[in-house]
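For the sake of transparency, this paper describes our internal protein records without simplification. Because each token names a local backbone shape, the row as a whole describes the fold. One such record is reproduced below, unchanged from the form in which we store it.
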Amino acid sequence: MQRYAAGRVGYRHEAKADQENKAAKDERELACLKGVSTFRSSHELGRFSDHGPMDEIPTLDSQNSKAMAGKMNEVIKPLEWEDFRFPTQKETFDFFKKKLPILSWVPMTTKDTFRADVVAGFTILVMVVPQGMSYANIVGIPLVYGLYSTLVPCLVYAALGGCRQGAVGPTALVAILTNAAIDGLLTEEECPAFFDGSQSGAQSEVCPEELAKLASLTAFITGILQIGGAIFQLGFIVQFMAQPVVSGFTSAAAFLIALTQVRNVLGFSIERSQFIYVTIGEIANNIHKTNPINAVLGFSFFFMLRATSSIAKKYKYFAWLRPLAPLIMCVLGSVIVYAADLDTEHGVEVVGDVPGGLPPFSPPDASDIGRVIIPSITIVVLSYLVASANAKTLAALNNYEVDAGQELFALGSMNFVGSLFSGFPSTISFSRAAVANSVGAKTQFFGAVTGVGMILALVLLTPVFAYLPNFVLGSIVMSSVVNLVAYEDAIELWKTKKSDCLLWFLAFLGTLFLGILNGVLLAVSISLILVIYESVRPQVSLIWRVKGTTTYRSVKQAPNGEWVKGILIVRFGAPMYFANMAYIRDTLYAMMKKGDQEEIRYLILEMSPVISMDSSALHILEDMARDFETRGLQLCFANTGSRVFKLFTKAGFVQKQGEEWFQPSTAGAVSQCLIHKKLGHASRDVVNREYMKAGPDDGEEETKDTYV
């Protein structure tokens, strides 16, 4: 009997244990349906964490966590007039310190940095004197304006620019853009000799001084637009220029620049044109006029410049050749012309007299703005694109940061002030900035040194330019732009993404055959079409469950996942708005139609990438929800961001659908669908009671984090 009683007691205990185990199992199953784990030990929780046990995850305490969140919110918080207050003295100083970088680099100047900046400043001066005159020749104006366009920008950028190694002044790309902007715009009143036929040649040859005024006006408008862009934070516009498009355009522009200089190397005049077929035709028609001595010397100097560049890159000992080579060629060419009397005996063209002295104060005539404002926009975009890329690269190499908005303001200021002193548009030169970095420039002071050196050159050295041959200037330009032809980019794009390679060639060929400005327009149009296409047809990801977890990933990220029966989970990688909702709607309906055979009755939209939504998208989702309801289907949302959830709430969409169909996680959304499938349409109250009983558990905390 005792044994029987003991057996009965044991049986009752086993039965009770089985009952408790069954209850625990049911509780775990319900928790899994809700996406909430019932495991309590840190070891068990660690199974679902990428970092190991939960208590080993390093976290800040509550006070510091809130402080960190506050700091981050200061960055993204929109301006509210209620928050306006007068700045403190420290805030005022910090503001001007940010807007006037000279207040930052002057205090950090030491004896060593001063010495390094002086060396760098005069090194850049040696480069920019011949380059500046060469680029003025590309614009089609007297060479001295290339020096004017270096002096003022160097001084202004030293005070306002944020890139410590940023060498500013004329560049080949901006020069040919300026030429395309102003060439042929002179009126009969401004250049009567061109229109009455008394002098042959292009306007740049007949009336160079009048064309220089238009170039200064272009710099004036460019500066105003850049300053305005900085004030209204419009620098993001350059992001619409895709890298393959910019590379293709730049390569074509470099090719055109080199062709324009062939006339200086061969020694005969040709019609200036921004169309490759016109330039090549002119060269072919006038090739019989080639000056043999001019051509031999011109190509010889070109190959010597290329050779010195290669030697300077290959052998560190000869690195000094890189900045000094252009000046050496100018001196050597002048000596040869003077000694052999090539200008008078053999018809070799030389620069001639260059006016000395400081640039005159000559504000441009604002009444002519309408003539050049459209092409000036092109210069604004591309000059800022080049400058910002150079500044960011140099800042990364030297472990400091630059403010893109401040750079745009600095570029605008130097172009605006430079235009008042006869300058044409300028920007940061990649080649000169690279040299400044290599010779050890430490602060923006080196730019001020270059500016002061240019003053001395204008006052003292202009007479020595009289015998400088044009073939030297042409060879300097050709040597400089060879590196801009980025054929390596095209080869790499062909290997990695052929569609981007096609864009490169479209921009390249469009610029060559349609002209510089039309080529820029084509490049921008292609970039915008790309942006619109990617926005209208956002990336679509199928989501499924990672085996053995409550984690959900895309099919491509987790190829060995599991499909939840009767549920389709989709994620669109873009905001939802009027332009892409037709594609999103059609895609979802097509997928649900495919899913009819698999008895898919639930569609979960994983909304984490959808950071914004307009009213058109909302209306389409409401129509879909109503249509789904009539067909016995159900629409559910997971990971909805706070901005979109507020829109849903204000529009009454949450109330119409039911709050249970807006879950803070994909696992929670799946749980809601499974509970609804199991319990039927009466599950709303059941689910709400279950979540209320759960209290401040993992799912509740996630809800707060998602919607706050």
